[in-house]
Write a structure and sequence with these properties.
By secondary structure, the chain is mainly β. It folds into two domains: about 70 residues, no CATH class; about 80 residues, Beta Barrel (OB fold (Dihydrolipoamide Acetyltransferase, E2P)), CATH 2.40.50.100. About 5% of the residues lie in helices and about 55% in strands. The strands form three sheets. It has a seven-stranded mixed beta barrel. A hairpin with a 5-residue loop joins strand 5 and strand 6.
C-alpha cells in the first residue's frame, strides 16, 4: 500500500472543492467532491472519479483510502489541542478511531524515536500507522488482534 503525504489541504464545503500541495510544495491540485455517505465521498480529479473512504486522525489529519492507495492529508489549520494531541505530548498514544490492532512493529522495552511506527491499527478497512511522538522506552498496552475504541490507550513512551 503506497502512502502519499500531502500538505496544506483546504476543503471548501460550500463549493465542494479540495485543494492541496504535494509534500515538497512543488505542485498544487484542485478537485471537486461529493459526499456519498458520512465517511465515503466521490473525488473528481483529472477526468476520473475516485470513490474514497475517509477518516480523521487524532491530530486533525485526514486519511483517504481508495482501492489503489491510501492518501494522508496533514491538516495545518490552527485549532485547540485535542485530548489525543495532549496525550501524545505526554508519551501516551490513544486510538484515533475504533479498530483492530493489526501489527506491532516494535516490542515493549524498545528504544523509539519520534516518527517511528509503533503499530498498525486497522480501521474502516484502512491500515493506519500509529507513530511515536517522542524519544523514550516503549510500553505496549494494546494486545495484538485486540478491538479498540476511540481514546483507548495503545502504548506509552517513558
Amino acid at each position: 500500500m503506497m502512502n502519499n503525504k500531502i500538505k496544506n489541504i483546504q476543503i471548501d464545503q460550500e463549493a465542494k472543492t479540495i485543494t492541496w500541495e504535494d509534500d515538497l510544495g512543488r505542485m498544487k491540485y484542485l478537485a471537486r467532491f461529493s459526499m456519498v455517505t458520512t465517511n465515503v465521498l466521490n473525488l473528481y480529479f483529472e477526468d476520473q472519479v475516485f470513490r474514497l473512504t475517509y477518516a480523521k486522525g487524532p491530530q486533525g489529519e485526514i486519511w483517504l483510502k481508495s482501492d489503489f492507495k491510501t492518501l494522508f492529508f496533514e491538516n495545518k489549520m490552527t485549532r485547540k489541542k485535542s485530548k489525543n494531541a495532549q496525550s501524545a505530548e505526554s508519551g501516551v498514544a490513544l486510538a484515533p478511531m475504533p479498530g483492530k490492532v493489526l501489527r506491532h512493529l516494535q516490542k515493549t522495552g524498545a528504544s523509539v524515536k519520534p516518527g517511528e511506527t509503533i503499530l498498525i491499527l486497522e480501521a474502516m478497512k484502512m491500515e493506519l500507522p500509529i507513530k511515536a511522538e517522542k524519544n523514550g522506552i516503549l510500553d505496549l498496552v494494546s494486545q495484538l488482534g485486540a478491538q479498540v475504541s476511540i481514546g483507548d490507550k495503545l502504548f506509552e513512551i517513558k
